[in-house]
Write a structure and sequence with these properties.
The chain has 201 residues and is of the alpha+beta class. Helices cover 27% and strands 27% of the residues. Residues 1-23 have low confidence and may be disordered.
Amino acid sequence: MRFLSAFFLSLLLLVSIPWPAGAISLVNKEVILEAQDYGVKRQQLALTEFLAPWLVYEEKAPILNETTEKAYLYTPFLLIANDARDKVRSKQVVELADSEKILADYAGCLVFSITANGNSPNFTEGVQVTLRQEKKVFKPYHAVANPPVKTPRFPDKPQYTAHSYFYFSDKDILLNKPITLFVTTKDKQERRFYFDLPKFK
């Protein structure tokens, strides 16, 4: 989990990809302050617990535990809340300007993080990721993929896990309707993650 937190922070600091104030919900000063307050009040939560409201498990997962494949949707609210959480935990001041910069940096896209499992050290090679809404299919315009690593269960299955981030333009996506994220890996295994967008803050 320490790795996930550090990687998430690196995305905030190093990847300048825009996100519109209108994505998921209208973001104004009131919403920014609400998101900052959310992050500050939940600063002691473990990162996985903090991110839980933005988590979706793979549709066909037989059980839900630490090995279940999952995906997160980083909404503007979550980006601001997580930044506030990190700042408070590192004894920094939570500033309105910092949150506004995050919104500007991520304007125009939807960001998903995916945790997938496989039984080969290269099972994510050539991974195919699409976002589908009604009859429309969207492909990511940017990806940050980490190589698979052995799971604590190794050599038991799943033997490997991989964390990746995918960025989609939200230009033609209806943010008031559900979407499904499809992930197909080298082993031809397809994963589906259903996001009911109106329910995400």
